[in-house]
Automatic annotation (TrEMBL):
InterPro entries referenced in this protein's UniProt entry, alphabetically: CFA/CMAS, CfaB-like, CMAS, DUF7884, SAM-dependent_MTases_sf
Gene Ontology BP term (one): methylation
Domain DUF7884: 12-77
Name of the protein in question: SAM-dependent methyltransferase
Keywords on record: Lipid metabolism, Methyltransferase, S-adenosyl-L-methionine, Transferase
CDD domains in the record: AdoMet_MTases
Keyword Metal-binding tagged: no
Organism: Halopseudomonas oceani
Top-rank taxon: Bacteria
C-alpha cells in the first residue's frame, strides 16, 4: 500500500517530502520545500483522498507535523487535494440555527481565547479585521490605521455625531473615531475578554466621555433612530443566513433618517453561500468559527435593500485581506514559543493552520470581503451625500 501510494503521489511532482513513521522518507518532487512528518501510520491510507479538513484535523490532533513554511504547506495541501479529491456538489445549503445563547457561546469560543495571544500577532491597536494597504510595503500597523480612516471617511463622520459600533472587538475603531473625528461611540460586543481590554484602553486614553462599550446582543438594542451613523466590522459573518433580515432590520431601526451604515464583512464565493470546497469550509466551521455562515454579496445587498437602506458604495478588499492574513500568520510563526505559553497546543495548531489557510484562500478567491455603504433616505427620498467619492480619497 505504501509503495503504491508513494508512487501515485510522486507522479504529482509536488515540492513535498513525506517523513514516514518507520523513519524513512519519500520526496514527491524535486527540491522539497515542505516536509510532512507522519506520526500515525493510519494517516497514510487517508492520504489517498486528502481533503483539506482531514489534513488540517490531522495536524491539530498531532498525527502529523509540518516543517517549513506553513503558508507553503497550505498551498501544497490544496494542490494535493485538488488533484486527488474530485470536487462534489454540496447539495442544499443547510443553515444553522442562531439564538442569543448559541451566538454568545460561539463568540466566546473564538474571541475569549486569550487577549495576550491575539496581541502577539495583531497590530498595536489590536484591530482584528482586514487592513487597507495604500502601498504593498505598508506595515501592518500603518495599514490598520489606514483602514480605520478609510471607514471613518466613508461614513463622513463629523464631530458630535453618535456612532454605533456593532461588534466593537478590542475597541480600536471606537477609539480612533472618537479621538480623530470627535464622535460619541456606543460599542457593543459579546466577548467578555475583548470588552475588558477595550474598556481598559478607553480609560487609559482618556476617552471615557466619548466612548461607551458594553456587553450586549445587537437584538437587544432599545429605542429607535438613536444614531447618526452605524458601523459593523467583522460581525455579520456570525449572524447566520436565517437572521440576516432581523440583523439589517435592527440597523435600519437604530439609524436616523439621512444616516449612513457601513457593513464590512467576509462574503461567500458562491451565490448560495455554501462553504469553501475540498473541506476547507468544514475545517473552519468545526475548529475556528462554530456557527459562522458567510453570505454572498448579493444576499447582503438584498438584505439591506429589503429594509429600505439604499446601497451607495461597494468595495472589495479581498487582496488586502490576503496580505493582512499573511502578515498575521508570519507574526504568529515568529512567536511560537511565546504563543505556546499562552494557549494549549491544540489551539495553537488550529490558529497556525487557520491564518495561513485563510491567507491562501483569499488570494485564491475562495471567499471575498466587502465594505458596503448604505444610506437611510430622508422621508422625501433624498439624502445629502456628495455627488462623487472624491472626499473619501483626498
Amino acid at each position: 500500500m505504501l509503495a503504491q501510494l508513494t508512487a501515485s503521489l510522486s507522479a504529482l511532482k509536488l515540492p513535498l517530502r513525506l517523513s514516514l513513521p518507520d523513519g524513512g522518507s519519500v520526496d514527491l518532487g524535486p527540491s522539497p520545500r515542505v516536509e510532512l512528518t507522519i506520526h500515525d501510520p493510519a494517516l497514510l491510507q487517508e492520504l489517498q483522498a486528502p481533503r483539506l479538513d482531514r489534513l488540517g484535523e490531522a495536524f491539530v490532533q498531532q498525527r502529523l507535523d509540518i516543517r517549513g513554511s506553513v503558508l507553503e504547506a497550505v498551498a501544497v495541501a490544496d494542490r494535493l487535494s485538488s488533484l486527488l479529491v474530485p470536487e462534489q456538489d454540496n447539495g442544499d445549503v443547510l443553515h444553522q440555527p442562531h439564538d442569543r445563547r448559541t451566538d454568545a457561546d460561539a463568540i466566546a469560543y473564538h474571541y475569549d481565547l486569550s487577549n495576550a495571544f491575539y496581541a502577539l500577532w495583531l497590530d498595536p491597536e489590536m484591530v482584528y479585521s482586514c487592513a487597507y494597504f495604500r502601498h504593498p510595503d505598508d506595515s501592518l500597523a500603518k495599514a490598520q490605521v489606514q483602514k480605520l480612516d478609510h471607514l471613518c471617511r466613508k461614513l463622513r463622520l463629523h464631530s458630535g455625531e453618535r456612532l454605533l459600533d456593532v461588534g466593537c472587538g478590542w475597541g480600536g475603531l471606537a477609539r480612533h473615531a472618537a479621538r480623530e473625528y470627535g464622535v460619541h461611540v456606543h460599542g457593543i460586543t459579546l466577548s467578555k475578554q475583548q470588552l475588558k481590554l477595550a474598556s481598559e484602553r478607553v480609560a487609559a486614553q482618556g476617552l471615557g466621555d466619548r466612548v461607551h462599550l458594553e456587553l450586549r446582543d445587537y437584538r437587544d438594542l432599545a429605542g429607535k433612530e438613536n444614531y447618526d451613523k452605524i458601523i459593523s466590522v467583522g460581525m455579520f459573518e456570525h449572524v447566520g443566513h436565517a437572521n440576516l433580515p432581523e440583523y439589517f432590520r435592527v440597523l435600519q431601526n437604530q439609524l436616523k433618517p439621512g444616516g449612513l451604515v457601513m457593513n464590512h464583512g467576509i462574503t461567500a464565493h458562491h451565490v448560495d453561500g455554501r462553504p469553501v470546497g475540498h473541506g476547507a469550509g468544514a475545517f473552519i466551521g468545526r475548529y475556528v468559527f462554530p456557527h459562522g455562515e458567510l453570505p454572498h454579496l448579493s444576499m447582503a445587498v438584498a438584505g439591506l435593500s429589503d429594509q429600505g437602506l439604499e446601497v451607495v458604495d461597494v468595495e472589495s478588499l479581498r487582496m488586502h485581506y490576503a496580505r493582512t492574513l499573511e502578515l498575521w500568520s508570519n507574526n504568529l510563526e515568529q512567536k511560537l514559543d511565546q504563543a505556546a505559553a499562552l494557549v494549549d497546543e491544540r489551539a495553537l495548531r488550529i490558529w497556525r493552520i487557520y491564518l495561513a489557510g485563510c491567507a491562501y484562500g483569499f488570494s485564491r478567491n475562495w471567499m471575498d470581503i466587502h465594505q458596503i455603504l448604505a444610506v437611510k433616505p430622508l422621508p422625501n427620498g433624498s439624502h445629502s451625500l456628495p455627488l462623487t467619492r472624491e472626499d473619501i480619497y483626498l
